[in-house]
UniProtKB/TrEMBL annotation, chain A:
Name of the protein: Vacuolar protein sorting-associated protein 29
Pfam family, one: Metallophos_2
Family statement: Belongs to the VPS29 family.
Transmembrane regions: none
SUPFAM superfamilies: Metallo-dependent phosphatases (SSF56300)
UniProt keyword list: Protein transport, Transport
Cross-referenced InterPro entries: Calcineurin-like_PHP_lpxH, Metallo-depent_PP-like, Phosphodiesterase_MJ0936/Vps29, Vps29
Cellular component GO terms held in the UniProt record: cytoplasmic vesicle; cytosol; retromer complex
Segments forming domain Calcineurin-like phosphoesterase: 4-157
From TrEMBL, chain B:
SMART domains: TBC
Region span, Disordered: 1-23, 70-90, 605-692, 707-754
Keywords per UniProt: GTPase activation
Rab-GAP TBC domain span: 22-359
MF terms in GO: GTPase activator activity
Protein known as: Ypt/Rab-GAP domain of gyp1p superfamily protein isoform 3
InterPro entries: Rab-GAP-TBC_dom, Rab-GAP_TBC_sf
Comp. bias intervals (Basic and acidic residues): 1-10, 648-660, 668-691
Polar residues bias: start-end ranges: 11-23, 634-644, 731-747
Length: 191, 823
């Protein structure tokens, strides 16, 4: 039973000062096994903070990140699932499902996590899931009005993943749950 | 169909103590289950089987209920869990996820312990199957009893229980091999002719087979041959019969249900099964409500051990108490794991046989008399045997314990119980002591908890003592009263003597000094030792500030009145040194007061010089634990006595004597045992700082008060009297190097004029101050290094803060010394 935290687009310190205190109180070290971060942290201090929550930290580069050595995309396997990570500003049109699906096929992953739009979305698409955890700090965005702070926690258990979405709406933390079961691995016939 | 087993006599089994109950002597698992109260002591196999089955059902239900899978919704998930409440990051303690995480933490602890369980028997204990079972049992028990969650040591109680069951299974399989025909069901010898038309019924054959059928179902299987068996084997057969009462669930010796049985045994052992001795109490850290004393049960039980020991062998008891060996240092482990760590597994099984065979029902001898106290441990036969066992173990080490002079080596002997011991003798002794233990379960309060209250771990303990224990407190406070009264009288007498010898000593200063001593003593009278420390500290702290101002005034005054300055110094020294003895060094007081007496009696005489001792009591090496009062006083008193003797020598002795004397106490002090006493470490380090500040106070206060009074006689007398105390006070410290140098730096001219003397001494004052400051600073650095090695981080913080204050006072001292040296 693996807990994976997905978040991104914090834009600290340029657009936001810190995570909302309610989120911070929930993020306690010891519970989460992996953290995947879509990008735009932007400074190293944020990376250090995330490291304290969990030592296994994966970050991809957003366009405002000051650390230039993060990769553009990242792939990892957790349990039975393959996860893909990318910031999303590279995929145009930004936030478009079909383009993201293209990326998902490219990376050959079951779960694709991207950001940049600062809006939480989760699509089940073609046997896979495309998740956008939104902005954890609620930083303003050039393409979205009305940004709510949000992040995603995935509970990967065998062939099943439960996606918990935490959103801060009107000062209250709202939690939503999405279940997703992976179909047994099908062998693709080679062309 | 019940078979009367009670008729079976005890088969002779391998060297087990003869008083075993007849049945199941070789089946420890079953025997223990009976003794622990899980299985009834009834004679019928059926009863046994039924009770076994019930207990197993209970465990299975518990297991299903408590092992939480957060994915599986509770209660059949009629209501889908609210995601806001039930998400993994939920802070809500009731959510399934929180419970899951809590259980995960406990599991981590359990795993850690289990991986280190009985490495010498790893062939059994470290197999994953066994480990899994142990883990589940421990987790379930701890979940069931959340008030005492998992503590280290519980796994060691569980392991032998499991082992015993395992051995039973093994013996069962042995028996199976030997007596195969009893166990397997053979029908092949009696063929039924399966021809359809004729019902060829061979009655003879049928009756034979029927007999076999009956035999295989009931207990009277092949009656003749079963009865012919050894009763032991018979028992095994009957217990493991798959067709007996309750079917398979009732097989008393069953591998499949080993976990269930072990859980039941563990539960019975821990909760005491309505008996008097419950092991779970020993794991509790807080005092239980129903206990008479305000102490945690294990401390109380350790006190019970010492109480019994004092009755049996008072010399050994006093020896141990003198050394400061608290019973719980070793008894904690002994009691919590029921001697599991002191003996090999086989020996342990023998011991536990004995212990479990004793009845655990409370004898209710707990007296309501407030003057007396009864230990709960000794309130049942089983508890009495446990206490007796522990005492006999201590007695077996008697010679080596009496031979040791320090507490650490004593503890080493006790904690590393020798491998090769005559177990039989030990147990016989324990049996004989058991009766004594039960009868003597009435102890006057003062003696019962003498050691415990003397070295209280935290001041709050004394506050937690319930009012029912008022008499105990009174008893304890009586002792300190007398002790401190005595000291005060001694000091007062010394003071009078000094007064006489010094002639016109300013009464006001004297009075103030006397008042101060009284004040300090009265403050220290009424409270147990750690509170004493606290109060002394507070006292010093409060006057420290006003005395800082005094010091600056004094410095100003020194310029004005040379003579006065001289007296200041002398008086300061005098009171300074006396103050040293009157200081919070409770233990050192004894030795120092003796020296005051002697010094005063020395009377007038030539004065060698005015000696300056600014820090007669620099911080004790950080490793020394001040709370070891007895030890410290022992060491310091020979040292100070030595110094007294030296004082009687002619004046012209060389300063070389001094370093010698000083080295002696330093050695002794360094040998004092390093006890793991957290608060004492704290108080000792704080005490060091306070002592320093205390020196300042005295110095300044009496300098100021005595500025305007003098006579030359007084001066001489004071000097004379001051010098030896200064020597002594120096001796009672461990600061040889500084003492040596300051000694050497003193001018020895006796007949110098006052002025010269004074100037010289002032200069020396400054020099000595500087030296002392340097020493102190180096000790601080040392301390810092030492502090880093201490494992209590809060201590570090505390010491750090005090270091800062002490360093600031050091800086002020530097200024003073500069001033003085300029003069």
């Amino acid at each position: 039973m693996v807990l994976v935290l997905a978040l991104g687009d914090l834009h600290i310190p340029h657009r936001a000062a810190d995570l909302p205190p309610k989120f911070k109180s929930m993020l306690v070290p010891g519970k989460i096994q992996h953290i995947i971060c879509t990008g735009n942290l932007c400074i190293k201090e944020v990376q250090d903070y995330l490291k304290t929550l969990c030592p296994d930290l994966h970050i991809t580069r957003g366009e405002y990140d000051e650390e230039t050595r993060y990769p553009e995309t990242k792939m990892l396997t957790i349990g039975q699932f393959k996860l893909g990570l990318c910031h999303g500003h590279q995929v145009i049109p930004w936030g478009d499902l079909d383009s993201l699906a293209m990326l998902q096929r490219q990376l050959d992953v079951d779960i694709l996590v991207t950001g940049h739009t600062h809006q939480f979305t989760a699509y089940k698409h073609e046997g896979g899931v495309v998740i956008n955890p939104g902005s954890a700090t609620g930083a303003y965005s050039s393409i979205t009005y009305d940004v709510n702070p949000s992040f995603v926690l995935m509970d990967i258990d065998g062939l099943r993943v439960v996606v918990y979405v935490y959103e801060l709406i009107d000062g209250e933390v709202k939690v939503d749950k999405i279940d997703f079961k992976k179909t047994a691995t099908t062998t693709h016939s080679a062309h | 169909m019940s078979k009367d087993i009670a008729k079976e006599e005890a088969p002779s089994s391998s060297g087990v103590a003869p008083s075993e109950s007849p049945t199941f002597a070789s089946l420890r698992g079953v025997q223990w289950r009976i003794n622990l109260g899980i299985l009834p002591r009834s004679s019928s196999i059926d009863d046994l089987r039924r009770v076994t089955a019930d207990s197993r059902r209970r465990y299975a239900g518990l297991r299903r209920q408590l092992l939480v899978d957060p994915h599986v919704p509770k209660n059949g998930a009629s209501n889908p869990p609210n995601p806001v409440m039930d998400n993994p990051l939920s802070q809500n303690p009731d959510s399934t996820w929180s419970r899951f995480f809590r259980n995960a933490e406990m599991e981590k602890m359990v795993n850690q312990d289990l991986s280190r369980l009985y490495p010498e028997h790893e062939s059994y204990f470290l197999t994953p199957g066994c480990q899994g079972m142990l883990r589940r049992i421990l987790l379930l028990w701890c979940l069931r009893h959340p008030e005492c969650s998992y503590r280290q040591g519980m796994h060691e109680l569980l392991a032998p229980l499991m082992y015993v069951l395992h051995i039973d299974i093994e013996s069962l399989s042995e028996v199976r091999k030997l007596y195969e025909d009893q166990f397997i069901e053979k029908f092949d010898g009696f063929p039924f002719e399966e021809n359809g038309d004729a019902y060829n019924f061979d009655f003879k054959k049928f009756s034979d087979s029927l007999e076999d059928e009956i035999g295989s179902q009931g207990n009277a299987k092949k009656v003749c041959s079963l009865n012919d068996l050894d009763p032991e084997i018979q028992a095994i057969v009957l217990l493991s019969d798959a067709y007996g009462a309750e079917g398979e669930l009732g097989i008393v010796l069953s591998e499949k249900f080993m976990e269930h049985d072990a859980y039941c045994m563990f539960d019975a052992l821990m909760t005491g099964a309505r008996g008097s001795v419950a092991m779970a109490d020993f794991f509790a850290s807080s005092p239980a409500a129903e206990f008479q004393s305000g102490l945690p049960p294990v401390i109380e039980a350790s006190a019970a051990l010492y109480h019994l020991l004092s009755i049996v062998d008072s010399s050994l008891h006093t020896h141990l108490v003198e050394l400061g060996v608290e019973p719980q240092y070793f008894a904690l482990r002994w009691l919590r794991v029921l001697f599991g760590r002191e003996f090999s597994l086989q020996n342990l099984l023998v011991i536990w046989d004995e212990i479990f065979s004793e009845d655990n029902s409370p004898l209710n001898k707990v007296s309501k008399d407030s003057d007396y106290f009864s230990f709960k441990l000794e309130d049942s036969f089983r508890g009495g045997l446990i206490a007796a066992m522990a005492v006999s173990m201590i007695l077996s080490l008697r010679s080596s314990l009496l031979a040791t002079e320090t507490a650490t080596s004593c503890l080493q002997r006790l904690l590393k119980f020798p491998e090769s011991i005559n177990l039989k003798k030990l147990m016989e002794k324990a049996k004989s002591l058991q009766i004594l233990a039960l009868e003597s379960n009435k102890a006057p309060f003062s003696s019962a908890f003498g050691g415990v209250y003397k070295c209280k771990k935290s001041p709050t303990n004394s506050l937690n003592v319930p009012s029912g224990l008022g008499s105990l407190k009174n008893n304890r406070s009586l002792l300190p009263d007398r002790y401190w009264e005595e000291k005060w009288r001694v000091q007062h007498k010394a003071e009078e003597l000094r007064q006489n010898s010094l002639g016109k000593h300013p009464p006001s200063g004297k009075k103030r000094w006397v008042e101060r001593i009284k004040f300090r003593l009265s403050r220290t009278e009424s409270a147990p030792s750690p509170a004493r420390n606290e109060k002394c500290k507070k006292e010093h702290h409060s006057i420290r500030r006003c005395l800082l101002e005094d010091l600056t005034k004094q410095l100003g005054l020194e310029d004005v009145a040379e003579n006065g300055g001289c007296f200041e110094d002398s008086n300061l020294e005098d009171h300074h040194s006396v103050e040293v003895q009157g200081e919070g060094q409770n233990s050192a007081n004894k030795g120092s007061i003796a020296t005051i007496d002697d010094r005063c009696e020395n009377g007038s005489g030539a004065v060698v010089s005015e000696e300056k001792s600014f820090f007669p009591d620099p911080p004790i090496p950080p490793g020394c634990s001040i709370n070891d009062h007895e030890i410290y006083s022992e060491k310091s008193s020979p040292a100070s006595n030595l110094s007294v003797d030296d004082n009687g020598d002619p004046r012209g002795r060389s300063p070389g004597d001094l370093p010698h004397r000083v080295s002696l106490p330093s050695d002794d002090v360094s040998h004092s045992p390093l006890h793991e006493n957290e608060s004492s470490g704290k108080t000792s380090s704080t005490k060091e700082r306070r002592n320093l500040s205390g020196k300042f106070q005295w110095f300044r206060k009496y300098g100021r008060s005595n500025v305007n009074e003098e006579t030359s006689d007084k001066h001489g007398g004071i000097n004379e009297a001051a010098k030896p105390p200064v020597h002594d006070s120096k001796c009672s410290t461990a600061d040889s190097s500084v003492a040596g140098t300051s000694c050497n730096s003193h001018p020895t001219g006796k007949g110098d004029t006052m002025d010269q003397n004074m100037m010289g001494t002032l200069k020396n004052l400054g020099q000595a101050m500087l030296e002392h400051i340097q020493v102190l600073e180096s000790v601080f650095q040392q301390n810092q290094g030492q502090v880093g090695s201490l494992d209590n981080s809060s201590r570090n913080i505390l010491v750090g803060k005090e270091q800062v204050t002490a360093i600031t006072s050091l800086k002020e001292l530097r200024k003073m010394s500069n001033l003085l040296s300029e003069m």
